[in-house]
Specification:
This protein has about 250 residues and is an alpha/beta fold. The chain has a single domain, classed as TIM Barrel (Alpha-Beta Barrel), CATH 3.20.20.370. It has 10 helices and 9 strands. The strands form 3 sheets. Strands 2, 3, 4, 8 and 9 form a 5-stranded parallel β-sheet that branches. Strands 1-6 form a two-stranded antiparallel sheet. A two-stranded parallel ribbon has the order 5-7. Helix 3 links the parallel strand 2 and strand 3. Helix 8 packs across helix 9. The longest helix has 18 residues.
Length: about 250
């Protein structure tokens, strides 16, 4: 009993990992090595492996820099669904934008209240972080529940994957990203555009940060560019529905 209580109360850091991958050449998903089987074991995902030319647009929102409204304008005009992973700070500082995300049909995902490294906190602390975000969004919008969770800082281990699954969450990683969050080192919309287009592949889960001026200016061109290459934009709920189809149709 003592050892069990220690496991539940004390912070645990066992084989912590930081999500990353080796970029692929051409239009294939990246190589994630041992991470793939590990997150699949706990029902997480980073890509849609079906081979369909469908992509999934996701954003991380830790704080507001003035560009999210523009991002939402583009998504509305282009009729593109997205998932926004938000923190407690974002909820408190940008209530109107959170409401708009839900009102316009987007999914709001959980990025924790304080953005801690989950591999360094207890199960109870993790639950408090996630519960607080989910309840705050439910109080603010018509979205009553959350299914998707993106780990703060991209850190995870077997414990955090198992705990969040037990809490009813699905870990949502990504297969396309680039250094876009440093607001003091923006390189122009062309850089953002090429950073995404050079990595795009069937089933891509794309991670962008809305604090990026470059992303806001490049988003419309990214959408048009991917559609020109034959890609369709889908929501993460679409990906989950595909995972529920009988085995033999989709094996993931």
């Amino acid at each position: 009993m003592i050892s069990l209580l220690c496991l539940l109360i004390l912070p645990v850091k066992a084989d912590a990992f930081g999500w990353g991958y080796k970029k692929s050449n051409g239009d294939q998903p990246p190589d994630v090595g041992m991470y793939g089987p590990l997150i699949q074991k706990y029902d997480g995902f980073y890509v849609d492996p079906s081979g369909d030319k469908e992509v999934y647009l996701t954003f991380d929102n830790g704080y507001e820099e003035g560009y999210t409204a523009s991002v939402l304008d583009v998504l509305k005009e282009k009729k593109v669904p997205a998932t926004f992973f938000i923190t407690g700070h974002y909820i408190k500082s940008a209530e109107d934008l959170v409401k708009r995300m839900v009102d316009e049909g987007h999914i709001v995902g959980n990025h924790s209240w304080h953005h801690p490294d989950f591999t360094e906190v207890s199960r109870q602390k993790m639950k408090e972080e996630l519960d607080r975000v989910e309840q705050a969004v439910a109080d603010l919008t018509d979205q009553e529940e959350m299914l998707y969770m993106r780990p703060p800082r991209g850190t995870f281990n077997a414990n955090t994957l198992e705990w969040t699954r037990e809490m009813g969450y699905i870990h949502a990683f990504w297969s396309i990203a680039f250094v876009d969050w440093n607001t003091n080192q923006q390189k122009g919309w062309q850089y953002a555009y090429r950073s995404v287009m050079d990595q795009v592949h069937p089933g891509a889960v794309i991670l962008l940060h809305t604090v990026s001026k470059d992303n806001a200016e490049a988003l419309e061109r990214m959408i048009d560019g991917m559609r020109k290459e034959g890609y369709e934009f889908k929501s993460l709920d679409h990906l989950m529905m595909k995972r529920m189809l009988p085995k033999g149709i989709y094996q993931f």
